Every structure is written in structure tokens, then in C-alpha cells.
Batch of 3 targets.
Target 1
Amino acid sequence: MMSFLVSNARWLATGFLLTFASSFGQTWFISLFAGEIRAAHDLSNGAWGGLYTIATLGSAALLFSRGALVDTMRLSRLALVISLLFALACIGMALSANVVMLAVAVFLLRFCGQGMFSHMAVTSMGRWFHATRGRAVAIASLGHPLGEAVLPLIFVTLIGVLGWRFTWGIAAAVILVGVIPLLMALLSQDREPAGEVVSAEASAGLGGKHWQRRDLVRHWLFFAILPLFLTPPFIGTVIFFQQVNIAETKGWTLAQMAPGYVIWATMSVGFALIAGWAADRFGPERLLPILLVPMGLSLFILAPAEVFPMWFVVLGVMAMTQGAAQSFLGAFLPRVYGTRHLGAVRSLQTVIMVISTAIGPGITGVLIDAGISFPRQGIGLGLWCLALSAAMVPVMLRLRRELA
């Protein structure tokens, strides 16, 4: 493992930096500013949620049309363009004088952060690595939990000391002064595959071909695994988005629940690495029936929980799925669909993920307004996870026959 890290340090660091920097466009980061943004623009919870959903769906549409740039444009040039746009989005948040400017800034944050930065990172790992693809994706994806673990405390402190607008300016400066120079240094050399690492041309997918988006949406597998693509981001988003409702329902405080971020990040890291190793060792398709089992169990734990330490158990168990899912998808898509058009294929999966994170808060919020608390909703979501896991058994068996 150490020799793998050393010999591929430049490329793994590129993926890690992209996923870490994507934090500035993730829901959990933007939500740190939610109270100040709503007060500054006189927005109700519903208005802010609606604006966020529309901006996120718009970013998904743009990602669908531009995600294939990863296939046709040098990563060094594409990363520079998207990074500059990302910094501009942060500046737009800082200077937003009205709701229209705010909406445009959120749209760009979501497109660059949750969308393109994550998309570039995982697609590059899938293209650059073959036999060690699962481990490469897992290591690159560690930027996500690290951001979740360290950035909230730093930026909440900055908001309290400097104000929310100036803090967004600092985020822009981090991208301009820190992220861009590091990316340009890391990408100053082209990737030279060697040993276990093979070129995109040599890594075909199902049926010995390189699939395009129009091919995969006509194939049975896409519709069979679509619910699996949707579920982890949907539940992973709403579990944090509805923390206030959980706290009110259980009689806990957000201060008591806050250490859960660290537990979530730690477990995500561990199971991302485990899933990456398992995908390389046994094939990513074998993870299909077990991927959602921890997430389902965690929701069953949440429903009857009475004391706040159980919240840490819930997040720790759920993070097993959340961490493993990133490594799984990073290895599964090139394994099944090949690498020549991997950017276009993965952009479709990323769009599905973004749409899932956009509609999750809205659906669960409507149910809460109807009198169904989120812990009660969790029972239904848990049953869904376990039922979907069972449904993945025949999918896995058929897929293994076709891959063989």
C-alpha cells in the first residue's frame, strides 16, 4: 500500500485536493451561513429552501450538458477554468445585494463544488487507474470527510468574528491563493500510466466496448441500479438537513449532536478505504447487495433512540454506507461502462446524485409539515434500504454473468 501511495502521490493528491475543495459548494458548508443569508435577504425557511432547490436543479442541468468536458479537455485547463468560476461564486455570495445575485451565486457554487470538482476527481481516478481503481477512488475521496471534519468549526468561528460576507471572501481567497496554484503544480505533468495503471483505450466495459450515455440508458442495468444511485445522497443529505427536527423530536440540542460530524467523517474514511480494497479484490459489482444495509440499520436505530449518544451511533453506522458508496461508484462505472466516455457517463450519475440531494429536503420537509417527524420517516427509509438491498441480489448475479 505504501509503495502505491508513494509512486502515485501526485495523482492521488490531485483527486484528494479536488474533493476537499469541493466542500465550499456542498450543502453542509452552505448551510453554515443559512441563518445570516436568510436574515440579510429577508427570506423565510420556505423561500430559502425553494431558492436552494431551484439553483441545485439548475446546476444539475448544466452539469449534464458540460460534464463530458472531462473526456475532451485537458484536466489542467478544465480545473483552472472551474476553479476560477468557483472563486467567482464565493465572491458573488459575499457581494450578493439581492435575491437574484444570491441565486446565481448558489447555482455556481453547486455546479462547481458538488458538481464539477467531485466529478473531475472521481472520473480522473477511474481513467488513470485500472487494477487499483477502487483504492485510488477511496483515497481521493478522503477529501470529502476531511472537509466535513475540519471546516465547519473554522468557518463558524470566522462567521462569528468577521461576519458571513467577509468569510465568503476568505473562501474565495483560499481557492485563488491555495487551491489553484496547488492544482496547477500537481497537473504540470501529464499522467503516464505504468504497471497496474493502464490507458483509457485498454479499459473497456461490459460487452468489451466503451459505452456512451445513449447506450447505457437503453440497457436494463441502468434502470435496475438507478434507485441505488439515488438513495445514499438522498438520505445522506436529509439526515443533516433535518437535524433541527430530529433535535426537537428527541429533546436533544444541536450542541450535543455536533460531535457527530467527526464520527461521521472518521467512519466514512475507514469504509471508503475498505470498500475500495473490496472493489479491487472481489469486483465492485459484488458490493451491490450490501451497500445500503448499514444505512437502513442506522435509520432503525434512530427511530426509538432516546439519549443523544445514540445519535453518534446512527451517524457512525450510516457513514459506513456513505463512505463505501463513493468508492463503489468510482470503481463500478469504469468497470461496467469502460473509460473512453467515462466523463459523460459519470456526469449522468452525478446529475442523478445532485437531483437527489435537491429533492430530499423538500420531500422530507413536506412530510414534517404533515406531522410525520423525520425519525418516523426513517422507518420507511430504512425498510426501503433493506428491500433495495435484497433486490440487488439478482441484479448482481445477472451482471456477473454478463461481465464474464
Target 2
Amino acid sequence: MKKILVYVLLLFFSLLFMAPLFWAVTTALKSQSELYLFPPKWIPSVWKFSNFAEAWNIQPFNMFLKNTLIITILSTFGQLISCTLVAYGFARFQFKGRDFLFLVVLATMMIPWEVTMIPQYMLFNVLGWINTLKALIVPSFFGSAYFIFLLRQFILTIPRELDEAATIDGANKLTVLTRIIVPLMGPSLILVAVFQVMGCWNDYLGPLIFLNDQTKYTLTLGLSQFKGMYGVDMQSIMAITVLISIPPLAIFFFAQRYIVGGIATTGIKG
């Protein structure tokens, strides 16, 4: 009975959390006349799949998608390269002030982005990066304190004997990183990649501040503009929302075992 009660509760809360997504999908498939019925109608009488194509073509969402993909792919690549190098340095190299410097890096996580937003804008304005995608891509190549911490903790779980064996065979530090450490860091690198992709894909405040030209807009800005122009066209708004939500949901679904594995193996050794 205890097991049955647990499964019933899990099923109930699963349906409760899935209800908003189900409502968004069904609303996107409804006709205009069924949107504001009372009591609400969960299942539409006629499934209008054409709502997705019509909503997508109202604004240049193909261009918004291209900009979002460019930012997401390059930012993820930058985070993986920079954070891996920094984490490897903190985990394997011995130098004066290493622990203090690592604490300083961790301390930056306590500074909210809203505090550094204005200094960043002023810096990017001097560099001429305002209204360009550089403002959203280049900072990723300087690493993230959270990702550096995750990768460092994972590298610490890898035995040093592997490094020493490779060094005896004539491998330098970079070879040890690329040939031994990185292949063993698969789960943690996938974890960082998934977090970064979701962060870039759903980012709204960054593009809103740094981008002014519609040709540079991302999907989130395009959706915001769409909602402003067609505030009562609820099924089109829901159609775009559902389409934008599909990639992160798919990535999370296929990478969830790597996410759990990466988090589970992080912090085992301090």
C-alpha cells in the first residue's frame, strides 16, 4: 500500500506539472472561437495544425532562429574550451595563491548579473559591440565560475596516476588534458553544454539590452515583440511558445542521464 500511495502521488504531481504544457499545446491548436469559452475546453473540436505555420510566418522567426543558434553554439563552445582549461589548471597545477584565486572565482557567483549589467554595457559600447552578437558570444570565452567549479571537482576525481603515466611516456600537460582528462570528462562536459544551451536559448534580458536592430533579434525577443503586436491572438502566441520550447525539452530529455551522472560525480573529492 505504501508503494501504491507513492506512485499515486508521483503520478498526480507529474500530471499537475504537465498541465500547463498540455494547455499551451491544445490552445495552440484551437480555433479563435474556442479560446475564451467558459468553462474552458481542454481538447479542441478541430485540431488546427496550420496555426503553427501561420504564427511562424507572421514575423521573421527563421532569422530569429538563425541568430539564436549562432549565439547558442558559439557560446557553448566558448564555455567548454575556457572552463575546461581553467578547471584543469586549478585541479592539477600547483602555484602560489591557487586556492585563494579559486575562492575569488567562486565569490563572483555571489554577484548578480544585474550589478555588472551597466559596466558591461559601457565596456561593450566602447568596444563597438552594442547591437552585435559579439556582446552575447565573446563573454562566454572567458568562462563561468559555476562551470569551472563543476569541471574542477570532476577532474579531482580522476586519479593522478594517469597523468603521471602519460608524463613518463613523454606527454606534456596539454596532451594529458586532451588525450586523458577530456575523454574521461564526458558526463560533466555534457552537463555544462546542456546548462549553457538552455541558458542561451531562454535568455531574454541580455539580448534585450545589447540588441536594437530586429535583424539581430533572438527567438525570445521575437516572441516578446510578437506578443506586443498580437496580444489577443492567443493561439498564435501559444504556437510560437510551444515551437520555441521543443529544442530545450528535447535536449534535456536525451541528455538527462548525463545530467544526473555529471551532478552525481561532482564534488566527490574536494
Target 3
Amino acid sequence: MESPHDYLSHALKQLRQANGWSLTQAAVNTGVSKAMLGQIERAESSPTVATLWKIATGFNVPFSFFIQSENDGSETPVTFSQSNAQMEVRSLLPYDPQLHMDLLEVTLAPGAQSHSSAHEEGVIEQVVVQEGELLLGVAGVWHRLVRGQARQFSADVAHSYRNPLATPLRFHSLIHYLSRPRITN
């Protein structure tokens, strides 16, 4: 089985080629630099979760496309970790093409924060705190959620996740895509 970074490299290259995009066109559509996209395709760089979201949004594919191989037959969820260990995302369920959704588990290190640019128009996210405390910023407004609390929001605006505690934060993120993402296998 290939490493998560090799899988990411192949998935990005496959998407770009399936769309007929050069690295320059992919950079324009995703907002990620041509140099960074090239490094990811060559498995020379590990992107942050925020960068991976930009790529997924630009290609109109679900986030889990980059972290879960649907062809490996494994029931074990695949995890994507940032190289600085501040954030980890695990796909709990692969993208469901009928329901247009991903189910992810997100872990933030103590004191960590992650900023996410606006996703595609119409994307809705629901978060449920499993452990710790989440400060959720949506369009500049902050909401405090503790274990067992949930919040739904429009993810087509900038949003942030912050862990204000000295212990890890773990929450589930259910992402609903308005339009059917373009997935090429």
C-alpha cells in the first residue's frame, strides 16, 4: 500500500490530467502556487490541511478524495497529518456520491488553530465536538463548543477552528456538497 503522501501525489496528478490542466491552470483554479502543486505532485512537499482544502475546492472534489483510497479494499480510515503535527484529519466514511457528503474526524493539537478559506458555494458543514473545546470562527463570528455540542454553518465563507486548551481537541466534521463533485478514477 502506498504512503498517504504518495497517494496524494498520484491523486493530484490524476485530477489535473483528467481536467486537461497545466500546473499553471491548476494554480489559477485552486489559488495554490504552481511551485507548491508541483512539489506535491512529486511527493516533495506535504501540504497543510488548509492548502489541501483549496486544492479540493479548486478541482471540485470532496476533501476525502485526497486522503482515502477507495480501491485499496481497506476498512481502516486513512489519516492526513500536517508535517507540523498541529492538525490531523481522518476520513471516517469515504465520500458518498448519493448523499454528496464526507465524514471526517479532525484533531487539533493544544493551542493550535486552522484557517480555512471559503469552500465551493453551497457547502454546509456540521461539527460535533468529541473531546476538548472548539472555538469555531465563521465569517468573523466566534462560537464556543464543548464536548457533545454541535453546530451547522455555511462553509462557503472563511472559517477557522481553534483549540484554546492545553489538551487535544477532537471533533467530527460532516461536509455536505451542494453540487456533485467531479471525481475521476
